[in-house]
Amino acid sequence: MAVSPDGNTLAVGQTDNEAHLWQLDLPTPDEAMARICRTVGRDLTGQERLTYLSGVAHQAACPP
């Protein structure tokens, strides 16, 4: 398994010597955070921010 340098394609090799390419449609970090917040129905706790968003300013993770 490998991801292309631009992060847009995933290549997966199979045991039958076939390779499959997958186009990745990844959200921006802001879009991903909005999806997470909608899914859990709340903002992240301080501990969740430390665990999953290390290096990000300690502020509300979910948009208002």
Structural commentary:
The protein has 64 residues and is of the alpha+beta class. Helix content is 30%, strand content 19%. It is built from two helices and three strands. It has helices at residues 29-40, 46-52; strands spanning 2-3, 9-13, 19-23. It has a three-stranded antiparallel beta sheet with strand order 1-2-3, with no helix packed on it. A hairpin with a 5-residue loop joins strand 2 (9-13) and strand 3 (19-23). The longest helix has 12 residues, at 29-40. It is elongated. The N and C termini lie far apart (38 Å). The mean pLDDT is 81.
DSSP summary, beta strand count: 3
Please tell me the overall pLDDT: 81
Q: What's the SSE pattern?
A: EEEHH
Instruction: Kindly name the structural category.
Output: alpha+beta
**Main sheet makeup:** 3 strands, antiparallel
Radius of gyration: 17 Å
**Unreliable residue stretches:** none
Number of helical segments with 4 or more residues: 2
List the helices and strands and how they pair.
Blueprint: E1 2-3, E2 9-13, E3 19-23, H1 29-40, H2 46-52
Antiparallel strand pairs: 1-2, 2-3
Relevant terms:
64 residues, alpha+beta, 3-stranded antiparallel β-sheet, 2 helices, 19% strand, elongated
Summarize the structure.
The protein has 64 residues and is α+β, with helices and mostly antiparallel strands. The chain contains 2 helices and 3 strands.
